Amino acid sequence: MIKFIKQEIEIEESLKQRIMIICDFCNTTPTIENGSIRRIDKTNLTYVEPHRITIKGNLYLAFNYSNVIYISNLSKKIKISELEDYIKNN
User: What is the pTM assigned to this prediction?
Assistant: First the structure.
């Protein structure tokens, strides 16, 4: 039987603060769900699940120590510095 091990990762405080400040400028409040590390026991297979951030009904994905944020899935990304304009225009 395959055993999956899940370990939650806290969102980095500076990333959280940047998102909160951007959302304050956009007059909205984000919902942040911490990411996790998922491992398959007794193997070297590991998956890092990103933090999930919901802003105005849209899903954004972020990793600690990264300067980009992903929109809906990992195929479209923007710089965190462009997030305010993106939120205001969508």
Answer: 0.89
The amino acid sitting at 1 is M
Residue ranges of alpha helices (H) inside 1-90 are 13-25, 83-89
- For residue 11, give the DSSP letter: P
| Distance from the first to the final alpha carbon of the chain | 45
Give residue limits of the domains in the chain. Answer: 4-89
Reading the block at residue 44, the tokens are 């070297």
The amino acid occupying position 86 is Y
From residue 31, give the alpha-carbon distance in Å to each of 18, 46, 57, 83, 85.
14, 26, 10, 15, 19
Using CB atoms within 10 A of its CB, is residue 12 exposed (0-12), middle (13-18) or buried (19+)?
A: middle
Question: 74-88, pLDDT tens digit by residue?
Answer: 999 999 999 999 999
Record the tokens describing residue 45, joined without a space: 């297979």
